[in-house]
Protein: Probable membrane transporter protein
Amino acid sequence: MLIFIFLCVGGFIAAFVDSIAGGGGLISMPVLMIVGLPAHLALGTNKFGGASGCLMSTYKYVKSGKTNNDLLKKLVPFSFLGSVLGVKCVLSISENILNILVFVMILGVAIYTFTSKGLGDENRFEELNQKNIRLGMILAFGLGFYDGFFGPGAGTFLTFGLIKIYGFDFLHASANTKVLNLTSNLTALVLFMISGQVLYQVAIFYGISMMIGGYIGAKVAIKKGSSLIKPIFLVMAIGVAAKLVYQTIL
Structure:
């Protein structure tokens, strides 16, 4: 019973945070590892829960009208394709080197966000054009690929990229990020399920708690806006960077 409560509370918190600013995997993966799931099984089970939470937060964002559907119609296929290739790809680069590269990039994002006054505070989106659509496609494909094979910080990079390319505020960037995240998460989940790396008796309860957390988190984010999302975004970016350093050192 205590393990069940621990899983439900951990899943809720992870999805609540992830729906606002990304980085929920920093919470959800350790929760599954603590209760004794092997690494590969934990990854697949976490994808099940993460996709469930992402589904509800995406629903809430879409329903609120904070997503740009014209843009997403163009970017979602690239996120899907990137995720498929990411899961299937056997990388030549070692995980330790990848950790270092991602750490440098995500720390740079955090520092830039912190020092750039007004970044993401107001929605400055004007219009879609060929240049920003192409850049968005590259962003969606690259981070779909990254989310498929590795994952930490994918939502953080997506949110930051959408702010820089389209001039969104944090609220609208987070809303569109959730749709792209949902695409890559569901794609990866199907592949994990096919390979038998999902523990369903845990995943179902974990998924339900994350659905609730994702829905409530998105609701709070929509109500509070960028003033809430930006500081949580910074905290989660620093958290992802710290986790990568810890993994590399050990």
